[in-house]
Amino acid sequence: MERTEPESGNGRRVVVVGGGIAGSLASKSLQFDSDVTLIDPKEYFEITWASLRSMVEPSFAERTLINHKKYLQNGRVVTSPAVNITNSEVVTADGLVLGYDYLVIATGHNDVLPKTRQEKLSQYQSEYEKITSSESILIVGGGPSGVELAAEIAVDFPEKKVTLVHNGPRLLEFVGQKAADKAFDWLKTKKVEVLLNQRVDLSSASDGDKNYRTSGGERVHADCYFLCIGKPLSSKWLKGTVLNDNLDGKGRLMVDEYLRVKGRKNVFAIGDITDIPEMKQGYIAEKHASVATKNIKLLMSGGNEKKLSSYKPGSDIAIISLGRKDSVAQFPFMTVSGCVPGLLKSKDLFVGKTRKARGLDPNIVD
């Protein structure tokens, strides 16, 4: 084990575990007020909701994949997974031991990703070539990723046969029926075949045979497929740590109104890993980061706990991109689709706005 400490302590050592939407913004916000260390298995932050555009336009990823050190110039980046937490330290898979005065858990969902930015860029290029070289494409999963990928392919490559298979009774089960129906109807107008209430056996196509069998007895011909199913929370590693008893039955960290892990004064959790009953979306994770970092700064300065900021979940808003111009948007009192809501998201997918929030030029590639 290699024990490491920042140059200055003074109760200002902050360790952020997870470099996704919430963790990246929290680290950036704390870097000039604390000795901050960001722990992440990869060397870059990705604007995840823009990833599907990068599969049909690899150059788009030049702005959506950002090395952590680009926005965290006054902090430290440790490129290794965290494997243990004690009451005062975080241990990484590389054997590094980092002391903390404040800890932020922002590990989100578990996904296997390349370690370097260049490897991820190459992955998008490979997926693009996979799409362009195929005449027929199977997409498994009718959540936001599956629907948005089907839409991206249908718009950019209208000559390709796209089939989406989903095991639920409707698409986009995290939003209302009206939004799901609008997305379904839009896909049908783009000649995307949607099969609901069915599973697909991906092992059913033997070598040379590109026909996949579904649980409904149908056969889907596809030159390639993409798996777009939900990822589990990245919290299993916490079960062997001091935070084990702070996990609920679904593997989420239970937090109080100040986004502190319940029962702990100096440990915060933000983003998808929290047990807050709300939609798990990027803009909400950024709100978590804003509240948590404000509270950490208050505590570091010796402020009164009574002045801590509370996080209050807002109304659920969801925007599902449908290619480059259209989208389905669900607001508290209405659901709309087409090019008008598409103006909100679909052209740039909030990439410029997200980069700007991290102190970066909205347009320049990294």
TrEMBL record:
Q: Does the keyword Flavoprotein apply?
A: yes
Q: Which SUPFAM superfamilies has this protein been placed in?
A: FAD/NAD(P)-binding domain (SSF51905)
What range(s) does the FAD/NAD(P)-binding domain occupy? 13-285
Output one GO MF annotation.
electron-transferring-flavoprotein dehydrogenase activity
Q: Which key words tag this protein in UniProt?
A: FAD, Flavoprotein, Oxidoreductase
Cellular component terms per the entry's GO annotation: cytoplasm
Whether Oxidoreductase counts among this entry's keywords is yes
Q: Which Pfam families match?
A: Pyr_redox_2
Superkingdom to which the source organism belongs: Eukaryota
Question: What family classification does the UniProt entry report for this protein?
Answer: Belongs to the FAD-dependent oxidoreductase family.
Described by its record, this protein's role is as follows: Putative FAD-dependent oxidoreductase.
PANTHER family (alphabetical): APOPTOSIS-INDUCING FACTOR 1 (PTHR43735), FERROPTOSIS SUPPRESSOR PROTEIN 1 (PTHR43735:SF3)
Q: What is this protein's record name? A: FAD/NAD(P)-binding domain-containing protein
Species, as recorded: Brassica oleracea var. oleracea
